[in-house]
C-alpha cells in the first residue's frame, strides 16, 4: 500500500525557517517527486518538482528560498523553507508518481494528506 505522510510545518514568523518532510513507502518505482501547496479558494500549485532525471525545479515564487532534498532510496523527501513570507502560508502536499509495489501496474499519482504552514507577519 502506497503511503505519503507529511510532517513538520506549523506556525513561523516572517523571515523564519521551517522544514516539512514526507515519508514515502509502498512503491516499486518512483518516477517523480514534488511538493505542492494550496490555499483556500485557489488551485494547488507546484513548489518544487524532481523529474525522472533527478532534476529539481522550483517555482519562481520560492526560488532561492526553498530547497528540496531526498535520500537515495526516495523514502524521505524534505522541503526546507527559508526567508518565509506570509504569502507562503498554505497546506503543503507531497506528491509522487510511480508504480506501486503491489496491485495495479501504474504509474499513478499519489498525494500525502498535507501539512499546514502558517507564516505570521
Architecture overview:
With 121 residues, this protein is mostly beta strands. The chain is built from no helices and eleven strands. A hairpin with a 7-residue loop joins strand 9 and strand 10.
Could you list some keywords that capture this structure?
0% helix; seven-stranded mixed sheet; four-stranded antiparallel sheet; mainly beta
- The end-to-end distance, rounded to whole angstroms, is 40 Å
Radius of gyration: 14 Å
Total count of strands: 11
Helix amount: under 10%
Overall pLDDT: 96
Oligomeric state of the chains present here: single chain
The 3D shape can be described as elongated
Low-confidence stretches: none
> Structural class given helices, strands, pairing?
mainly beta
Strand content: over 45%
Order of helices and strands: EEEEEEEEEEE
Number of helices: 0
For the report, how would you describe the main beta sheet?
7 strands, mixed
Explain the layout of strands and helices.
Elements: E1 3-8, E2 10-13, E3 18-25, E4 27-38, E5 45-50, E6 56-58, E7 66-70, E8 76-81, E9 90-100, E10 108-111, E11 115-120
Parallel strand pairs: 2-11
Antiparallel strand pairs: 1-3, 3-8, 4-5, 4-9, 5-6, 7-8, 9-10, 9-11
